[in-house]
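USER: My hope is that you can spare some time for a protein that puzzles me. I am handing you a single protein, as its sequence and its fold in token form. Walk me, if you will, through where the backbone shape changes along the chain. The protein I mean follows directly.
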Amino acid sequence: MADFDKKHKKILITGGAGFIGSKLALKLIEKGYIITVLDNLSTQIHGENCYKSALYLSIKDKVHFIKGCILNKEDWRKALQNQDVVIHLAAETGTGQSMYEIEKYTDVNIKGTAIFMDILANETHSIKKIILASSRAVYGEGKYHCPKDSIVYPLAREEKNMIKGDFNVKCPLCGTNVEVMATDEESKIHPTSIYGISKYVQEQMFQTIGKSLNIPFVIFRYQNVYGAGQSLSNPYTGILSIFSTRIKNGNDILVFEDGNESRDFIYIDDVIRATILGLEKEEANNEIFNVGSGIRTNLITVADSLKKAYKSNINIVLSELFRKGDIRDNFSDSSKIKSRLGFESEIDFASGIEKFANWVNSQEIREDLFETSIMEIKEKGLYK
């Protein structure tokens, strides 16, 4: 083990039974770390019988598992005992759902983090480093280039334009259509969803308390993470899993807007590598990093790639419908994490899709709850 490992061997992962957390826990165990997991085994992720969840079973008996909630101070106290590092992954995720489950998202993401920080500030503990899983959602639309006004950071798109089928992002100064650029860590922060707001508040808390208590922090702004092990029953987040579940049920894929909206997809194995570099390298201390591939992939390409991978004859429907809070484009500038930590994504989208589809083909077909999630959003007036 490296010197760092010897000094910081015991790690608490909140949300460690989730998609990213369980994969991270297993990889850290391989490297000789002793892992504690605090997780509430949410039904939305793990299903009604949470103890039979594949994600939970993958870590069962390999970690010290505490079923608990980050809104419970006693659960935090129990989980933090004798730990060296906390990797804080536990959160409510999903931009669409956050726009009407506002109290839930702010409670879990902000108050849950506040309870953790309160313990660090006021109670005896052994924590020597804290790591936060944040999100590209903090950027909102991110960085764009305007022919007239150069680099700009557009506001959320206006509903009146989107109703007319104009999904383009506009310059906030002159109203001209603008061209997306890679978003770097110094870009303006202005989230367009409650989820994005909650993640940025978490970031500010980690920075403020970390510096105040002289505890090194690392913040990762993950892009769209996908891969084998992703929940196939959660209809609120994870475009590839949502599309895959629809295909496996023989249902057409409904693509929002015109299908040209894009995301930066990064495979789970790359995300785990980046996170461990942030854990082990001192160069990561007190820094914020994008974690992405740096490549845009539009949703038509995603849907078509999955349809081909599953050899399906379902239809891909371009709905021209949209959800409030959704961004048009965002992809990461990954130069900082490359220069500071030596990280580059290794699994391209085509290879990742193949790995993901092969895994999905080995799973039981899950109930398609996408229409239910859409009805919820529609009832709240957030789906047009």
Notes: The chain has two domains: 3-143+182-379, 144-181. The two ends are 54 Å apart (CA to CA).
